[in-house]
Amino acid sequence: MEIGITALVAVVLLAGLAVAMGWILGWANQAFAVRQDPRIEALRNALPGANCGGCGYVGCQEYAEALASGQAEIGLCGPGGDSAKREIAGILGVELKVDDGITWRAVTFCHAKKSERLKQIPYSGEMSCAGAHQLSGVQSCVYGCLGFGDCAQVCPVDAITIEDGIATIDEDCIACGACVKACPRHVILLVPFKTPTMLVNLCNNRDFGREVVAACKVGCMGCKACTRVGPLIEMEGNLAIVPFAKYEAGIDPEPYLKACKRHSLRLISIKPKCPVKDLNSE
């Protein structure tokens, strides 16, 4: 009889202890819980979910957390575009000036095919741009596309192909910037398209004209012929530059295209693969 009473008391004590521990754990969970900013979920939903890393964060969730904590800028998401920027600004309660009508796309600022590149040496090292970039003489133009496809490997939407040694970017580009970071020669840039087509200098060579001619058949020599056509093009050292901020609808590109005897000025488009027009080749 005493054994039964003892066992019953033990059971009651254990049950009471379990209830007490459960209550303590529940209280601790509430008291010490890390409160998540309710804006994080809303910010995450405002982002496109590409998880491309172009913003500099591991994925959209991490970027949303950084936005909520004030540690990240609003305009870092290329795939989201202006609509995402507006929604994010509304969630955070800040004013935001967006670039209405501008579409960002990645563009390769090198258009020299393999046959147009001079003084190339055989390369048998690591088949990557990062590896080839470490050696001099892989190609005589140190500003040109190496063509091993590091950019294509990191593109989250397979918008990049290597064609005749050049990284070619198509209309699937979401402007995440991953290819820009992957290119060791900084040949790829994000371009703001204010119009469906834009005039650009697809050469990135900053050397003097004589050195450019020795390296490439189609590189910009810095002859300044295009600058005499009109005020659109400026010289940045030895390289002719089309400032994106100055490019507006209504600009006639044909006089500039005709003035470029080295074919480096091209008319590129948002949708088709670039370049799409070269009056010198017609």
Short synopsis of the structure:
With 282 residues, the chain is an alpha+beta fold. Helices cover 30% and strands 13% of the residues. β2 and β3 form a beta hairpin.
How would you explain this protein's 3D organization?
The structure is a single chain. The chain has helices at 2-31, 39-46, 60-68, 81-92, 129-132, 150-154, 178-182, 209-215, 254-259, and strands at residues 103-108, 160-163, 166-169, 188-193, 197-201, 234-236, 239-241, 265-269. It is of the alpha+beta class. It folds into two domains: 39-92, Electron transport complex subunit B, putative Fe-S cluster (3-methyladenine DNA Glycosylase II, Chain A, domain 3, Orthogonal Bundle), CATH 1.10.15; 103-281, no CATH class. Strands 1-4 form a two-stranded antiparallel sheet. The protein has a two-stranded antiparallel ribbon with strand order 2-3. A hairpin with a 2-residue loop joins β2 (160-163) and β3. The chain starts with a helix and ends in a 13-residue tail after the last strand. The model is unreliable at 274-282 (pLDDT under 50).
Summarize the SSE layout with pairings.
Elements: H1 2-31, H2 39-46, H3 60-68, H4 81-92, E1 103-108, H5 129-132, H6 150-154, E2 160-163, E3 166-169, H7 178-182, E4 188-193, E5 197-201, H8 209-215, E6 234-236, E7 239-241, H9 254-259, E8 265-269
Antiparallel strand pairs: 1-4, 2-3, 5-8, 6-7
Helix pairs in contact: 2-3, 2-4
